[in-house]
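Encode chain A's predicted structure.
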Amino acid sequence: MNYHLIEEDAEEANAILADLHREKQLLKRKLWAFELEFYERHGRMADKQDKESVRHIYSDYKDVTNRIRAREGRGGSTVHSCLDCKVFEVEKAEHEHDNIGCSTSKHILQLKAERKALNHIIKSYEIEFQKRHKRRVSSLRDTQPIASKYRRYVVVKKELEELIGKN
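Encoded structure for chain A:
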């Protein structure tokens, strides 16, 4: 990938990045609040159809995440406008498969699916814990019933970061 950076004051760039991170956290809290409220109301996790009412928040979250990645030089969308992040990313169509074998791509997809499943299990446990104990999970003792899931999630996440970082 080739990046052409437009000159930008370092302080301004850091301030913009900090604003983007704050915006991402705010959106993440809104999504978490929706899921918690939905669970309390319906006794189950929201599915895709249930999340339709907050689709715009998911879309905004994805956009902010891509803008952060672009500013941090970690990729994101293939083209970013100069008004958004002053970065133009030029890439070839075959970019996704450069330096990645087919088996590695399959492994990445499997790890992503496992991470998603583990995340769902962990979130469900945390919601149920909060409902039962009127507080959030805050210690290792609180996580004991699903400690193996937490440990596996950390391993899968780290492996994904290593594999995707090679791209």
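The two ends are 10 Å apart (CA to CA).
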